[in-house]
Amino acid sequence: MKKTPEQIHYNMQRVKCKNTEIEILLRKELWSKGIHYRKNVSKVIGKPDIAFLGKKVAVFCDSEFWHGYDWENQKTEFKSNQSFWIPKIERNIERDKEVNEALEAEGWIVLRFWGKEIKKDAGHCADLIIAALKERN
User: Across residues 10-31, what is the average pLDDT?
Assistant: First the structure.
Protein backbone atom coordinates (compact mmCIF):
# COMPACT_ATOMS: atom_id res chain seq x y z
CA MET A 1 0.00 0.00 0.00
CA LYS A 2 1.39 3.37 -0.99
CA LYS A 3 1.89 5.88 1.82
CA THR A 4 0.71 9.44 1.56
CA PRO A 5 3.24 12.27 1.81
CA GLU A 6 1.80 13.05 5.26
CA GLN A 7 2.38 9.48 6.45
CA ILE A 8 5.94 9.54 5.12
CA HIS A 9 6.56 12.88 6.82
CA TYR A 10 5.17 11.54 10.11
CA ASN A 11 7.40 8.45 9.93
CA MET A 12 10.53 10.40 9.06
CA GLN A 13 10.00 12.80 11.98
CA ARG A 14 10.21 9.85 14.33
CA VAL A 15 13.60 8.62 13.16
CA LYS A 16 16.01 8.86 16.08
CA CYS A 17 19.64 9.84 15.84
CA LYS A 18 20.57 8.86 19.42
CA ASN A 19 19.77 5.78 21.49
CA THR A 20 18.65 3.73 18.53
CA GLU A 21 17.88 0.04 18.90
CA ILE A 22 21.25 -0.99 17.46
CA GLU A 23 23.19 1.42 19.71
CA ILE A 24 21.41 0.14 22.80
CA LEU A 25 22.04 -3.50 21.81
CA LEU A 26 25.75 -2.89 21.41
CA ARG A 27 26.04 -0.77 24.55
CA LYS A 28 24.26 -3.43 26.63
CA GLU A 29 26.64 -6.05 25.27
CA LEU A 30 29.68 -3.92 26.15
CA TRP A 31 28.27 -3.17 29.61
CA SER A 32 27.66 -6.89 30.25
CA LYS A 33 31.36 -7.48 29.50
CA GLY A 34 32.35 -4.78 31.99
CA ILE A 35 33.34 -2.24 29.34
CA HIS A 36 32.58 1.38 30.20
CA TYR A 37 32.26 4.01 27.50
CA ARG A 38 31.03 7.48 26.68
CA LYS A 39 28.12 7.93 24.30
CA ASN A 40 27.43 10.57 21.66
CA VAL A 41 30.54 12.61 22.50
CA SER A 42 30.05 15.95 20.79
CA LYS A 43 33.65 17.10 21.25
CA VAL A 44 34.90 14.23 19.05
CA ILE A 45 34.70 14.63 15.27
CA GLY A 46 31.60 12.90 13.92
CA LYS A 47 30.04 12.58 17.39
CA PRO A 48 30.61 8.81 17.74
CA ASP A 49 27.80 6.69 19.13
CA ILE A 50 30.29 5.08 21.53
CA ALA A 51 33.69 6.53 22.38
CA PHE A 52 36.68 5.62 24.49
CA LEU A 53 38.41 8.96 24.90
CA GLY A 54 41.59 7.83 26.63
CA LYS A 55 42.18 5.03 24.14
CA LYS A 56 41.04 7.09 21.14
CA VAL A 57 38.59 4.47 19.85
CA ALA A 58 35.40 5.71 18.14
CA VAL A 59 32.48 3.41 17.36
CA PHE A 60 29.64 4.19 14.96
CA CYS A 61 26.44 2.16 14.66
CA ASP A 62 25.25 2.76 11.10
CA SER A 63 21.74 1.98 9.93
CA GLU A 64 21.59 0.49 6.46
CA PHE A 65 19.15 3.04 5.07
CA TRP A 66 20.80 6.28 6.24
CA HIS A 67 24.39 5.21 5.62
CA GLY A 68 23.93 3.55 2.24
CA TYR A 69 24.50 -0.16 2.78
CA ASP A 70 24.96 -1.90 -0.61
CA TRP A 71 24.36 1.52 -2.13
CA GLU A 72 24.93 0.71 -5.79
CA ASN A 73 22.07 -1.79 -5.68
CA GLN A 74 19.85 0.00 -3.18
CA LYS A 75 19.75 3.41 -4.81
CA THR A 76 17.72 1.98 -7.68
CA GLU A 77 15.03 0.90 -5.21
CA PHE A 78 13.76 4.40 -4.42
CA LYS A 79 10.25 4.73 -5.77
CA SER A 80 9.64 8.38 -4.97
CA ASN A 81 11.56 11.59 -4.49
CA GLN A 82 14.81 10.18 -5.88
CA SER A 83 16.14 13.68 -6.52
CA PHE A 84 16.10 14.23 -2.75
CA TRP A 85 17.05 10.84 -1.31
CA ILE A 86 19.90 9.81 -3.58
CA PRO A 87 22.01 12.96 -3.03
CA LYS A 88 21.16 12.96 0.69
CA ILE A 89 22.35 9.41 1.28
CA GLU A 90 25.36 9.84 -1.00
CA ARG A 91 26.34 12.86 1.10
CA ASN A 92 25.97 10.74 4.25
CA ILE A 93 28.32 8.14 2.75
CA GLU A 94 30.83 10.85 1.85
CA ARG A 95 30.56 12.40 5.34
CA ASP A 96 31.24 9.01 6.94
CA LYS A 97 34.45 8.74 4.88
CA GLU A 98 35.48 12.28 5.83
CA VAL A 99 34.87 11.57 9.52
CA ASN A 100 36.89 8.33 9.34
CA GLU A 101 39.80 10.11 7.67
CA ALA A 102 39.76 13.04 10.11
CA LEU A 103 39.66 10.78 13.17
CA GLU A 104 42.36 8.46 11.84
CA ALA A 105 44.56 11.49 11.09
CA GLU A 106 44.25 12.38 14.79
CA GLY A 107 45.28 8.87 15.83
CA TRP A 108 41.85 7.35 16.47
CA ILE A 109 40.81 3.79 15.70
CA VAL A 110 37.43 4.01 13.95
CA LEU A 111 35.01 1.07 14.02
CA ARG A 112 31.78 1.11 12.05
CA PHE A 113 29.13 -1.57 12.38
CA TRP A 114 26.04 -2.01 10.23
CA GLY A 115 22.80 -2.38 12.14
CA LYS A 116 22.26 -5.89 10.82
CA GLU A 117 25.73 -6.92 12.06
CA ILE A 118 24.86 -5.72 15.55
CA LYS A 119 21.45 -7.39 15.51
CA LYS A 120 22.91 -10.67 14.25
CA ASP A 121 25.81 -10.86 16.72
CA ALA A 122 26.31 -7.98 19.14
CA GLY A 123 28.77 -10.13 21.07
CA HIS A 124 31.11 -10.36 18.10
CA CYS A 125 30.91 -6.60 17.54
CA ALA A 126 31.72 -6.03 21.22
CA ASP A 127 34.68 -8.42 20.95
CA LEU A 128 36.06 -6.39 18.03
CA ILE A 129 35.78 -3.24 20.13
CA ILE A 130 37.53 -4.94 23.05
CA ALA A 131 40.32 -6.06 20.70
CA ALA A 132 40.76 -2.45 19.50
CA LEU A 133 40.91 -1.27 23.12
CA LYS A 134 43.55 -3.89 23.97
CA GLU A 135 45.55 -2.71 20.95
CA ARG A 136 45.90 0.64 22.75
CA ASN A 137 47.30 -0.75 26.05
Answer: 79
